[in-house]
Specification:
71% of the residues lie in helices and 0% in strands. By secondary structure, it is mainly alpha-helical.
């Protein structure tokens, strides 16, 4: 089966589009809501905290990007791939551990023994 570049890019945009903010929010809420701090393993709890930090940083980056307009942002392909890039930047910030929101949240949850 052969597909042209235009057909492939259309397929990718239509079927592989990144999840919307509301979908990401719901997924994050489910992830955080399903964790009981008393019974959760440390790795599971830390992963949930990292998910929150990544989401938070991504939203901050998106708001910052709104303050600067570039002609590169025009077009549906650039908007889509720009969102993917923003998501990857947020993941990189979280993975670096330099911001530390996930670690602070994790330590606070463990210390206060927060349960759902």
């Amino acid at each position: 089966m052969s597909m042209s570049v235009d057909g492939l890019s259309s397929y990718y945009l239509n079927n592989m589009a990144s999840t919307s903010n509301s979908d990401k929010t719901e997924k994050l809420e489910q992830n955080l809501g399903s964790i009981n701090v008393e019974t959760a393993e440390d790795a599971e709890l830390l992963e949930a905290c990292k998910s929150f930090e990544t989401y938070f940083v991504e939203q901050v980056f998106k708001e910052m990007k709104k303050t600067v307009h570039s002609s590169d942002d025009d077009g549906e392909y650039m908007q889509y791939f720009g969102d993917m890039l923003t998501e990857k930047y947020a993941e990189a910030v979280t993975d670096s551990g330099e911001l530390g929101i996930a670690q602070i949240l994790y330590e606070s949850m463990k210390r206060n023994n927060i349960t759902n």
